[in-house]
User: Fold Kinesin-like protein from Hucho hucho.
Amino acid sequence: MSVFKFCGCVYVICVCVAGVRAVQRLAEPQEQQHSNCLIQEGEQLIAALRTQVGELEEKLLDQTQEVERLRSGVGATDLEKHLELLVVENERLKQELKACKTSLLQEAPPPACTATDCPHSQDVEALREEVSRWESQTRPRQRRLAELEQQVLEKASRVETLSRQLEESKRHAGEMQRQLEESKCQQGEVEQQLSVQLRDCEEELARQAARPHQVKYVTEIVEVESSGSQQAVAEAQAKSAALQEQLSLQRQLLRELETQLHESQRTSTQLRAQLRADRGRICGLLSKAVGRGNGEVICRLSKILVYEGEMERAQGQLEAEMQNLEEEKNRVIEEAFIRAESEMKAVHENLAGVRMNLLTLQPALRTLTCDYNCLKRQVQDFPFMLEKAITEAKQEICQVIGEVSSANQELLRKYKREMNLRKKCHNELVRLKGNIRVFCRVRPVCRGEHDSAENMVSFDPEDDALLYLSTKGKLMTFELDKVFHPQATQEEVFQEVQSLVTSCIDGFNVCIFAYGQTGSGKTYTMEGVAKDPGINQRALRLLFSEVTEKAPDWDFKITVSMVEIYNETLRNLLGDNQGEKLDIKMNPDGSGQLYVPGLTEFTVQSPEDINRVFELGHMNRATACTNLNEHSSRSHALLIITVAGVNSSTGHRTQGKLNLVDLAGSERIAKSGAEGSRLREAQCINKSLSALGDVINALRSRHSHVPFRNSRLTYLLSDSLSGDSKTLMMVQVSPLVSNMSESVCSLKFAQRVRTIELGNATRRQWENSSTTSSPTHDSVELDSPPVTPVPLPISRASSAGSTLSASSKTPATRRRSQKSCVCVCATVNFFCGS
Assistant:
C-alpha cells in the first residue's frame, strides 16, 4: 500500500515539473527581458522538485524492500509472482517518465524571443501563480504524507514483531503439543507397565511360598510407580493450564493487531481519496495548458494517466491478496488452537483412565500385602525346619559314607586280583605278538641336507604298520609291526618298547637292537642326548621305578657290563686294561650257555650310577670320522643289564637280562671314503653284518645248521636268536635319495627278520632251597658267582665318592651263565651326524 502511495506522489511531481518546463517554453518568446530571472527560478524549482523526487524514490526503494520482506514472511507464491510483475512494471514506467523528461528538454525552443513578443505571457504568469499556490498547498500534505509513511513503517515493524511473536507462539504450541504427546506416551507406558506388573503379581502369588522375600519388593515397586503416575498427571494438568493461558494471550494480541490493521486501512483510504482529488485538479490545470500547448505533451500526459490507472488496479489487487493472506493466517491459528484443545481433551481422558487403573490396583496391593505377611511368618519358622533337615542329611551322609567305605574295600580286593590278571595277559600279549618284533623309524632331514632330500618316503594314514618307498619310478610297500614318522618323539618310541623292558623284571631275557646304515639315526634312538635321552636311559629309569614299587616284597639287584666287537675282537669297555683280549667260551657247568671270561660288571643303584657307567663306556668306545658320518661307530657295542630278584617272604628267585646292542652301521667303501685302518674296520663291520644276514636266512628257512660261528657278533647273539628271549629289532631308515638303495636293503632285511619264529621265551625262576636249586618249568639252573666290590676309577667317573660293586669273573674261579645277549647297535652320530 505504501509503495503505491509513493508512486502516485512521484507521478504528480513529475507532471508538475513537465508543466513548469512547458510554461517556460511558452513564456520565453514573450518575456525576453525576464527570461534570465524566470530560468533561474525555474531551475531552483526543478532542483527542489528533483530533490523531492530523489527522496521519494529512496522511500519507494525502502518500501519495496519492506514489501519484499513481508512477502517472504507471508510466503504466498502467487502473490510474490504478481508483486514481482508490478515491480517490473513500475521500473518500466520510471524509464518511460525519464524518457519523457529528456524529450521535453530536447524539444524546448531556444530563448530567442523576448517576453513582450509572446502572446501567452499572461497565461504563463497565471500558471506560475497557480503552480506556486498548489505547491504551498502540497507542502503540508507532503508533511502529512511523511507522517503517515512513518506511521506505516512503525506499524509494519509492529506487524513484523507480531508475526515473529506469532511464529514463536506456533513453535511454542508445537512444543507443547509434542510434550502432550510425550506425556500421553508416558502415561500409556505407565499404564501398560502397571498392567504387566499386575498380571505378573497375580502369577507370582502361586510361587510366593518359595520366594517370600520378593513380596515386599513388588509392593514397594507398585507404590512407587503409583506416586510417579500421580506426579505425571499433575505435571500434565499444569502444562495444559499454561497452554490455555498462552492461547488466550495470543487471541488478545491477534484482536489488537486486527484493530490496528483496520485503522491503517481507513487512513490509507482517506489519503488515496485526497490524492485522487489533487490529481484531478492538477490534471484540469494541465489540460488548460495542454489545450494551447504541444500535442505530443498531451499524448505523454495521457500515457501517464493510463499508467496511474494501472497502478491503482495493481494496488487494489495487492490489497485483496493481503486480505486473503490475513484471513489464511487467522484460519491456521484457529485450526492449531482447535487441534491443541482436542489433544488436551485426549490427554485428560488418558489421565482419567490412569486414575481408574490405579484405583483397580489398590485391592491387588492389599492382597499382596496379606500374602507377604503369611510368607513372612513362614520365613520365621524356616530356621527350625532347616536345622531338622540338616540333621537328617548328616545321618544319611554318614550311612552313605559307611556303604562307600565297604564298597572301596571290595573294589581294592578286585583291583589286586585284576592287576595279577593284567600282568598275565600282558606277558601273553607280548608272546603272541611274536618273539622278534620289528619296528621302523624314519629320521627327519637335517640342516644342509635339503638339497638332496626329496619326498621319497610316504606313510599310510590309516595303517601305522605300512611304509612306502618310491625308487626308480616304482612304489615299494613294506609291512612291519610299527612305523614311526620323522616327527615321532623319543617318548613315543619308548612307549612301544617299555612292555619288553618290564618283562626283564619278571625273569625274561630281552634283546633290543637297532639296525641300519651309518648316519640313519641308530645311536640317537638308543642313546639320545642329555636333554632327550633314548631307549637305554629310559629303560633303566623304568627298571628303577618298577624295582622301587616292588621294594617292600622283593629285593632286586641290577648289574651292568659293556663290551664291544672291534675288528672281530672282544673288548671290555668297563675294565682297566683295554688291551686285554676277551673270548667267548662255553660255560663249563654243562648248561650249554655262553659267557665271556674276565668281563667287568658294576652294580648300580640309581640312574646317576648308570650315567657314570655310560660315560666310562663311551670314553673307551671306538669311533672315527667318515664321509658319511662325523662320529661313526667303528664297532658293535653291547650293554648287558642283569636284574636278579628275591622275594623276601617266600624266597622265590628270578633273574632276567636286558641286552641293548648298538650295531655299527653298514657302509659302502665308495661312499664312506675309508682308507687304511678305516677300510679294515669297514670290511670287518660289513663281514659281521653279512654273517648276521646268513644267520637270519638260515633261521627263516628252518635249516638244521645255523652258522652262528661265522662271526663274533653272531656267536655272541646266538642265545638271543635261538628262541630263549624276547627280541625287538629297530630298523633305521634315511629319507635321502642318495641313501635310497641302502634303505631298501635295510627294510628288506627287516621283513625277513619279522618272519622268523623262535618259539616262546622262557622265564628264569627258582624256588628257595637250602641245598640245591630246583628250577620250575622251562627254567635253567643258575649258579650266581660272588661279587667283589671294585671302586670305579676316579679318572673315569664323575663322582669320586661313589663306588659301584664290580666282579671280575675268570674261568678258574667262577661259572657264568648267559642265557641270552641283547645287542644295542650304535653309530655315535647323535641322530643327524651332529
